[in-house]
Amino acid sequence: MNKKTVSREVVTSVGIIGSFAASNSWANDVLFSYDAGNNVWQTEALDFVDGDEFLIRFNASWDGSNKYGDATSKSSEVEGGYELVQGSEAANIKIPSAGTYVMKLYGNHTPFVLVMEKQ
Question: Is residue 2 part of a domain?
Answer without folding.
Answer: no
